[in-house]
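During the second year of the project, the team shifted from modelling isolated chains to modelling whole assemblies. The rationale, set out in the original proposal, was that interfaces cannot be judged from single-chain predictions alone. As a representative example for this report, we include one of the complexes processed in the last quarter. Its constituent sequences, exactly as entered into the pipeline, are reproduced here:
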Amino acid sequence: MNIDLSRRGFLRLAGAGVAATSLGAMGFGEAEAAEAAQVRTFRLATTTETRNTCPYCSVACGIIMYSKGDVKAGETAELLHIEGDADHPTNRGTLCPKGAALKDFVHAPTRLTHPRIRKPGSDRFEEITWDEALDRIARAMKDDRDANFIASNEAGVPVNRWTTTGFLAASASTNETAWLTYKTVRSMGIVGFDNQARV
Amino acid sequence: MTNAWTDIKNTDLVIVMGGNAAEAHPCGFKWVTEAKAHRGAKLIVVDPRYTRTASVADYYAPIRPGSDIAFLMGAIRWCMENDKVHWDYVRAFTNASFLVREDFGWSDGLFTGYDEEKRDFDKSSWDYQIGEDGFALRDPTLEDPRCVWQMLKKHVDVYTPDFVENITGTPRDKFLTVCQMIGETSAPDRTMTSMYALGWTQHSKGAQNIRGMAMLQLILGNIGVRGGGMNALRGHSNIQGLTDIGLMSNLIPGYLNIPTEKEPDWETYLSTRSFKPLQPGQTSYWQNYPKFMVSFLKAMWGDAATAENDWAYEYLPKLDVPAYDILRMFELMNHDRVNLYFCQGFNPMLSIPNREKVTRGLSRLKMLVVMDPLSTETSHFWQNHGAHNDVDTASIQTEVLELPTTCFAEDEGALVNSGRWLQWHWPGATPPGEAKYDTWIMAQIFLRVRELYRQEGGAFPDPILNLTWNYADPEEPSPAELAREMNGRALADLTDPATGAPVLQAGQQVSSFGQLRDDGTTMAGCWIYAGSWTEDGNMMARRDNSDPDDTGMFLNWAFAWPANRRILYNRASADLQGKPWDPSRKLIEWNGERWVGYDIPDIAPTAPPDVVGPFIMNQEGVSRLFSRGMMRDGPFPTHMEPFESPMANVFNPRMRGNPVARMFESDAGRLGSSDEFPFVATSYRLTEHFHYWTKHNPVNAALQPEFFVEISEELAAERGIAKGGRVRVWSKRGQVWAKAVVTKRIRPMTCDGKIVHVVGIPLHWGFMGAAKKGWGPNSLTPFVGDANVDTPEFKAFLVNIEPAAEEPVA
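Output from the structure prediction step:
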């Protein structure tokens, strides 16, 4: 069964409950209120919970991500914690040494944050805007395709191949990314198309 | 996987060969632990290294890297000889009784039809004898010398225990113990699961390794049952999905094929795909190929795909070679025949063999575009990192664009796990800086190229201009829209052809691939995903984890392709009367009218049990012990040495590696011999790291900070290598420096009278990220792949090793 009451709600109730019953039963009046005020709220109680799956191996363990802010409500959300999803049939809450450190993968110091260009012969990357980067790519693709597209072979059979541009697709991107990538690559006639499953 | 992670708890025996699940798939491996604890299941590990999986095994046997086929054929021989065969299963559910053509044969390590010049077989003799009625001839007694059973018996006869020991280095007594344990599962109420991964795929005959075990599992009757199956553990989180959706040179989503030049028109293309049944009354489900193909073409090109223009078949590229796979593309780069290259979340600098060649290829591009959440070695291939990447930066004229993408925590959509479960996930964090969704990036690239074609015209713009792009926000198609497109929908009101009853209204999502049509009235991007997003909503987002009677099926959790089926070929879990082979492990059964049970039947629900065979995707209706001409390197697996091996092929000393694997001319000269490179190397993974990603994570980088190689105490003594000392390891392609981990986990073995030492090389280091700089095995490995699928041979190659006095000069 799924746990209907979220962990956040459960812990909030439980925390307050323990303080109220134990002290109340002993008849401490004001002390009870003072003590209740001392009970720390659960750190994750103010966070947004999101269900996701581990992006590493294909066991695909269920995870719960705790964030400050709610993406779905249009807010900026900062990821604070990740733990195994106890409701998930495969991993039942467990995570391996890779999955347990997932939060720090998301926040890795070498995450990319800006499009960059390395010019021919240069020894450095320079920042570039998305518009510039995408226009350069589209222009280069159009020019290369027009110059090298093979419309038909020597026998006159239409073959519609573009072999001078290739595309390697990921292995941890979503199906939906994969499908949009497929449509784009195939519509142009790119045949140098492969993904990580090859290795 | 034919089965699922949660099903492994149902097994009696686990054999891990060609994998290391305890380290590489730890949370999935817990189901092995469950089976051991609650069913008393046993675990066998066969591996060159005494891995962490081996450390919890009931029985461990060492094996020389690249000799698995000899082991497996030996096991088949042993089972046949000792009557450890699930006879009813073999007779009814395999092609054991089919008669093979008289002109088929095998000698000197080669099947009939070999052409040395072409490095290919003429496979015409690798087939059944076909009768006048068009059906294959059979001998149900299995006594005809040309029947598959007798042919197989003859084929494996040479693989005696002594022969196996000589080739594989597995001591005879250990090999026999494994055979005995495996053989027990031929009983109808016993089963075994095979768990394998890259340890079997990354060989020049990887596909034949896997076939070898699949054949053994069929002989034991272990396919289609709970706790059985062939279970590819798979690597990355969506490697299954990317393959399903056909992101490969020669694929169309749902395992359809991109045409070749020999199929210039639609009619020719379909003519070789009629999939006529080879036995009376069989399903041969691929007969529906045109329905899936037309629905795909309608998904791609909508109204521009019509009956008159053969559904825009002309728009598809036609291949002149089997595939422009990644190895071929890097070969072409080295000949200046590639100008632009995209790497979307892929780091070929560390994952493609012969890194020197990879670097040379990238250096010859005009433009390299890298889309990744991380700053990778590939996007920095031009940057000098001393010995770790010793390139002449100024001479590299490649323009590199590095585009920041989101990662899992920030995006939404489905990933397909090894058990074929499509599981939806939701975003819970804001992308850092200007990082963008991959879907946005792909849409931008497409729309900008399309706009250039609109404005300027150019080479055959039709497939680009007519590509379906009817998203609410064309600039950013949503995951929901894309998922619905893959599932497919009706384009017109559909009625049942038999009864005339309404099935779907135009615009409604199909609920199964059975509703797809070949007349243009349906569309579906990926037919095997039909049912994943229906009129009832997103089936991949389902989270009901109830599991009636604890079968491990979880039918209401997410969605499994095809048709939400959790165990493939599950009809084979019941006998010819439709009763479960093992009543305590019932999966589905025939109730007199239809198939019912815990899983979605892998057969028409009303197909009578004694007529329609369980392997409905095959023209035979049964499984194949003899695979006809479907694999390039033989209808039976035959022992082949790796391209670099310490010994010659005992069948044919002239034969190097796989006789039909593709070898580019420039790479043939880069193969080493055992005189120069006396040691066998094999690559592997560690539990603390995931490929080249986690070295970017300071936590994992601290857990396993430094590149090492693993050798035996004997090899260390022979070469004067100290524990923890520094070594140089080199092959015909390159060299690396590493710490030496000297262990008892790798032991020398004896093959063909020679001592064989193994060097283990983990693959988690490079020159980017938080860990100490190092190298990967791809600096050393040969540029050759499997004969059928070109997966590179990472698991068996030759190196030399020596102590290195100091750090290399940076």
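Chain B touches chain A through 165 residues (CB under 8 Å). DSSP finds 22 helices and 33 strands in chain B.
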